[in-house]
Design brief:
The protein has 135 residues and is α+β, with helices and mostly antiparallel strands. The protein has one domain: Beta Barrel (Lipocalin). The protein contains 2 helices and 8 strands. Strands 1-2-3-4-5-6-7-8 form an 8-stranded antiparallel β-barrel. Strand 4 and strand 5 form a beta hairpin. Keywords: Signal.
Length: 135
């Protein structure tokens, strides 16, 4: 009987630990949500990111040419892919977030070498996207 109680407490503690780590991942995904402005190949571009559970999804729009961005957070980095919406071709993506910017390393479809892209957070976009996500 005592062993059962100990095992039960261990299971509950483990479930709470998993639950808390899930909440932590949700909070981190929320921090990435927002509108970011930058340039791709010298062209003005917008990166829009949203939280999807513990994942981050979004769209990179370069003067009407769009890429779908999707990934999950691993040790504070966004790891995923960037897909050309028109052709369906996919490239690898990794990104880190700072207070005001997202720095992306990506191999865009059709390119052979990785590109380093910097997108700065648009003013007040985090607060706007947080309100939308909470609805």
């Amino acid at each position: 009987m005592k062993l059962f109680a100990v095992l039960q407490r261990m299971l509950i503690a483990g479930a709470m630990s998993v639950s808390l780590s899930g909440l932590s991942m949700l909070a981190h995904a929320e921090e990435w949500a927002g509108l970011y402005l930058g340039k791709v190949s010298g062209q003005p571009s917008q990166l829009t990111l949203n939280r999807a559970g513990v994942d981050v999804i979004g769209v990179l729009d370069t003067e009407g040419y769009r890429y779908k961005v999707e990934g999950n957070l691993q040790d504070g980095k966004l790891i995923g892919f960037c897909r050309d919406i028109k052709t369906g071709k996919t490239g690898q993506l990794s990104a880190v977030s700072t207070d005001r910017a997202i720095i992306i390393r990506v191999i865009l479809p059709g390119f052979h070498r990785p590109a380093r892209l910097v997108f700065e957070r648009a003013e007040n976009s985090h607060r706007i996207f947080t309100k939308i996500a909470m609805r």
